Amino acid sequence: MNQGKRGARSLYCKWRNTSLVVGAALIGMAVWIVAPSVTAYVDSERSLVSVQEYEALLIASRALSAERGPSNVLMSVEVGADPSAVTRLAEARRATDAALSVVDRTRNLPLAPGIVRSLREALGLARARIDGIAQTPYAERTLAMLTEAIAAMFGIADEIQPTVELAAETLEKRNPALAGSVFTALIVTNLREQAGRLASYVVPSVSRALPLSPTAAGRVDRTQGRIDQLMQTLGVRLDVSDASLRALMGEVRRLFIGRGVRLIEKLTLEGRTGGHYSVAPAGLTGLYVPTLVPLEDLRKAAIHQMVTDIVRSRDIAFIRLIGMAAATVLLLTLLVAVMRRMFLSVLRPLLTAHEMIVGLAEEKPVGRPGFEADTRELNDLFDAIARLEGQLAERRELTERLRVRAETDPLTGLLNRARFLGLGDTRFAAAMGDAARADTTEADTLETRSRISVLYIDLDGFKTVNDTLGHFAGDQLLRDIAVRLSNAVGPESLLARLGGDEFAICTGAPNAAGLEAFARHILLQFNRPIDINGIPIRVGASIGLALMTDGEGKEAGASSFSQLCCNADIALYDAKRGGRNTYRIFGSAVERPMPERRALAG
23, 29, 96, 570: which has the fewest C-beta neighbours closer than 10 Å? Predict the structure, then answer.
């Protein structure tokens, strides 16, 4: 009897222990099932706060831009002549200060350290300068005074822009579904800033009734070009399926482009032809500012769309959470009665299958278990996972082949334009970081810092080869040139074919002398003829050079890799204009409008 009790007690203990273990596993499984719904709900709440903080940043950026309007008017009229302008400026400044206070309470989105304090300090100095000009008799004000005050306000807007862009990128990464609305709001805010700058460039000349200087006219032209680019980007980003957004976009085109931009174009033309303007500064503000209203409406609509999407996602996550929690409790209640059998015949195989699937997702295959499941369906599941593993392996191989094809020029095997720009951006950022961290002692000279440079190479005489020997000969010539350039630049440099007969190199260069020596080395590769079907072919090359440097002035270098490439492109066309089969380094090259540069390319 005692032995039977001991046996029963032993079985009971085994059953109890097994039940506790399996129960704990089931509870863990329940948590694992419910956790995604909890996470989705929490993420929705956090995204909602992030969108509100992102909107606060956009409002602060817009407020800084909007403050320039009444500031320009107050600096353009006689002291005390327009009391309403003083009132409008005070209201604009209060709005800016309130917006910066909201930004200062941001917690979810990243802000540059001390950005709000820095903005307030710069804003205080700019406002003091504006107030000083406003208190100066009109006859004693100069065009330079107005231009410098406006430039100070531009600098403040430029200072907050990287923080706004970083917030947009962060919000998009956290919730990719919001990407369209996030960047629509960002683009519209940038449009508002460029629109404000467009008017500010002509206000000093209008207020003084002076002809528009070539510098101001050039800034107007560049800003109009930037507005055109932003409008094109906005057209691509905008959710055309949303009727309200389409209607607001139509208002932007009708009012801002059709009236506002055309007004500035008219004043610019009047300034270029003598300085007799048809609109006074106060009248310019009254006509121009209302055309910017659709931009603000479009920004608000994009933010509203984001909030609506997040609230809908949060509500769905909450309903799913309740449903999953109820279903989990019911499942646990039903499974307690068959816990031991479930663990042995179902749960263990499923957990193993789960481990195998996770291993596949993490590209760490686990392999099929050594035991056989009790049911045919579970065995079929393991067979399906094994087949899936084979298919995923094939897909990874195919993806790698497609990636290489997408990043490589099919004719020469060199990098293509997109890959060259991507890798170049990475190198440029690294070089900028090295320069920022460099020790600024006397021993730290410009030559010892990390530098990169870009060479744009265009073949001279390639069209003649194509026309006389045919495209097959031209293709062979390009492949041979690619081989020579590859041997000349070395593995540490980036070499790409940008298209046609144009190549590009990104390499390290401590100074202009070293870069020019490298260019001469490249030109030597074209001294030897290339044999095409027994015919010796000679082609030359024109090379544009651009060096990343520090310092002041136009020759200082570039603020981005794309600008560095643009500098090299400008130098290239200067080299072609200078006789071809030579090189030019950016700095002495004259920047020309794009149509003229294209004409030089022919």
Answer: 23
